[in-house]
Amino acid sequence: MAISQRGTKLNKLWNVNAAHSLYIHDGHWYHRLRKFPGALFDRNGYILFQTEKEYLNCAHLSIGKQVSIRPPGISAIPGYVRVLPMSPPDLDVHSKVGVEGERRLAIHLYKERDRELVKNKKKAASSLNCEICGFSFGDTYGKFASHYCEVHHLLPIGALTEATEMELSDLAILCANCHRVVHLRNPPYSLQQVRDMLRGV
């Protein structure tokens, strides 16, 4: 059964009665719920949000283009319903095999990014070392990666409601690891908060 159909199947099988249902086997990444009540399913159970407000205000969710949940996944959210292992074989929800590469047509609006601004930030920076941990791609991987870094928007693009002028000071040079950690929640962690994590504060 296709991954995209499992949420619908479990919604019916477990009598959840959600208007929109999504399934991911480990409960970590989902598309956004669009109708309510809405349910997120993993291989063992589900969490039901009666209203959009309840969904958007859930502290366990980081909602952007996709929805991410910190480990161990939706099972840690208060209100999670664990279903006893009664899933029929055709669902194969305990399988360790995943399905990748399914083709889908997606039409949506997105917020334009100014790639020249990012290039200019890299050119103007005195160093491409991570501003949080100091990691250098060049020192670690040599000349092949000496010009690589990631550029983080201190004012999240997702928070903008209209076209907004950005300055180079609104951007930060980060390594891929620190950039990922910054975005583990919504709104993102500040650079100082991640520095404090590294120091064990």
Output the number of helix runs.
Answer: 6
What's the main sheet like?
Answer: 4 strands, mixed
Rg measurement, Å: 20 Å
Global morphology? elongated
pLDDT average, as an integer? 83
Protein structure class: alpha+beta
Low-confidence stretches: 86-95
Strand order of the largest sheet: 1-3-4-7
Distance between the termini: 46 Å
Element-level helix/strand string: HEEEEHEEEHHEEHH
Q: What proportion of the residues form beta strands (DSSP E)?
A: 15-25%
Helix percent reads 10-25%
- What's the domain count? 2
Number of strands: 9
Any chance you could write out the topology, listing elements then pairs?
Elements: H1 3-13, E1 20-23, E2 29-30, E3 38-41, E4 45-49, H2 52-56, E5 61-63, E6 67-69, E7 81-82, H3 115-124, H4 137-141, E8 150-153, E9 171-174, H5 176-182, H6 191-199
Parallel strand pairs: 1-3
Antiparallel strand pairs: 2-6, 3-4, 4-7, 5-6, 8-9
In brief:
By secondary structure, the protein is α+β, with helices and mostly antiparallel strands.
How would you describe this structure to a colleague?
Residues 86-95 have low confidence and may be disordered. It is built from six helices and nine strands. It has helices at residues 3-13, 52-56, 115-124, 137-141, 176-182, 191-199, and strands spanning 20-23, 29-30, 38-41, 45-49, 61-63, 67-69, 81-82, 150-153, 171-174. With 201 residues, the chain is α+β, with helices and mostly antiparallel strands. Strands 1-3-4-7 form a four-stranded mixed sheet. A three-stranded antiparallel sheet has the order 2-6-5, with no helix packed on it. It has a two-stranded antiparallel sheet with strand order 8-9. The protein folds into two domains: 3-87, no CATH class; 115-199, no CATH class. It is elongated.
